[in-house]
Amino acid sequence: MKVAVLDINGKDTGRKAELSKDVFAIEPNNHAVYLDVKQYLANQRQGTHKAKERAEITGSTRKIKKQKGTGTARAGSIKSGLFKGGGRMFGPRPRNYGFKLNKNVKRLARKSALSIKANDKSIVVLEDFNFDAPKTKNFVDVLKALEIDNKKSLFVLGDSNNNVYLSSRNLKGSEVITSSELSTYKIMNANKVVVLEGALEGIESNLSK
């Protein structure tokens, strides 16, 4: 499939970019997308939550009343979770929320996400560009020219470009990554995916394996 290549002023350059059908036009696998996004979000969790349990509470271990004859429930240590100030019963413990996902499933998920965006006409191909120095205003001008300044956008570069990255860093709704950093979550989270010409080859070679 062919897509028009735009310049940073939002004008058609007259050139067409060929998007691989094996990457941008497959039948999307929604379950693979779900699993990959779920793994990405799980990996963001620190898992450092912790509550003190009965054995970790400072307090007496004396039995607070006799076992029988009080007419109330049996009770042991004051550190029981039944009492105020006692330990937490079955409280959270530090854990790793990550889980393994087959690399073929992850590759299928990224191709499915790109195909969904391509089908929705949410992929823009932009000619390679650079800034003389990091300046947020320059990046905002590009967003306005592409009419995506009020939308979440993901810019995919072929190689790391410090000036472009630093120019976008203060903008909450935009993110700049390289083709090797592409993830299903970032693709699906963006309203528009702006792919630079130099990134197409890297994306297709990574996902066509």
Provide an overview of this structure:
This is Large ribosomal subunit protein uL4. Keywords: Ribonucleoprotein, Ribosomal protein, RNA-binding, rRNA-binding. Belongs to the universal ribosomal protein uL4 family. The radius of gyration is 27 Å and the shape is elongated. Strands 2-1-3-6-4-5 form a six-stranded mixed β-sheet. The model has no long low-confidence stretch (mean pLDDT 93). 24% of the residues are buried. It has two domains: 2-45 and 97-207, Ribosomal Protein L4, Chain: A; 48-96, no CATH class. The protein has helices at 21-24, 30-44, 103-119, 136-145, 162-168, 184-189, 197-207; strands spanning 2-6, 12-18, 123-126, 153-157, 174-178, 192-196. The chain is 33% helix and 15% strand. It has seven helices and six strands. α5 (162-168) links the parallel β4 and β5. It is α/β, with parallel strands linked by helices and 209 residues long.
Topology at a glance:
Blueprint: E1 2-6, E2 12-18, H1 21-24, H2 30-44, H3 103-119, E3 123-126, H4 136-145, E4 153-157, H5 162-168, E5 174-178, H6 184-189, E6 192-196, H7 197-207
Parallel strand pairs: 1-3, 3-6, 4-5, 4-6
Antiparallel strand pairs: 1-2
Strand order, largest beta sheet: 2-1-3-6-4-5
Q: Mind describing the biggest β-sheet?
A: 6 strands, mixed
CATH superfamily of the largest domain: Ribosomal protein L4/L1
Number of domains: 2
- The helix-strand sequence is EEHHHEHEHEHEH
Beta percentage is: 5-15%
Q: Can you tell me the overall shape?
A: elongated
Q: What ranges have pLDDT less than 50 throughout 5 or more consecutive residues?
A: none
- Would you tell me which CATH topology of the largest domain applies? Ribosomal Protein L4, Chain: A
The CATH architecture of the largest domain comes to 3-Layer(aba) Sandwich
Mean pLDDT: 93
Question: Total strand count, please?
Answer: 6
CATH class of the largest domain: Alpha Beta
Number of helices: 7
Structural class assignment: alpha/beta
Helix amount: 25-40%
Q: Mind telling me the C-alpha Rg?
A: 27 Å
